[in-house]
Amino acid sequence: MRIENCKFEGVGAFLTAPLDRNQPESDWLAANEQGVVPASLMRLYRRAHFLSFSGAPGFLADDNNQLFGYFGLMLRGVKGSHRCR
């Protein structure tokens, strides 16, 4: 679905995550400090520039950032699966 096809009646504002990050997100920091995520996952998160679109590696870059977006979704899913243990 394209945004121009959506109906936004009564919507006053939208909140989104920043596309460019220069530091880890608070939930990643908390998971790291609590030992929830393995060190290797935290290193991958840091090497991916905290999942910032401006830091997407060349092999994950495409015109619409779909590959990097999917990579971020998967990485967050892996982090979330460690919380369940």
| Range of strand content | under 5%
Straight-line distance between termini = 36 Å
Estimated helix fraction? 40-55%
For the largest beta-sheet, the strand count, sense and barrel status come to:
none
Number of domains: 1
Work out the helix count: 3
- The total strand number stands at 0
Outline: globular
Order of helices and strands: HHH
Q: If you average the pLDDT, what whole number results?
A: 82
Structural class given helices, strands, pairing?
mainly alpha
Radius of gyration from the alpha-carbon trace, in angstroms = 15 Å
Q: Unreliable runs, pLDDT <50, ≥5 residues?
A: none
SSE map:
Blueprint: H1 26-33, H2 39-47, H3 66-83
Keywords:
3 helices, about 80 residues, globular, mainly alpha, about 40% helix
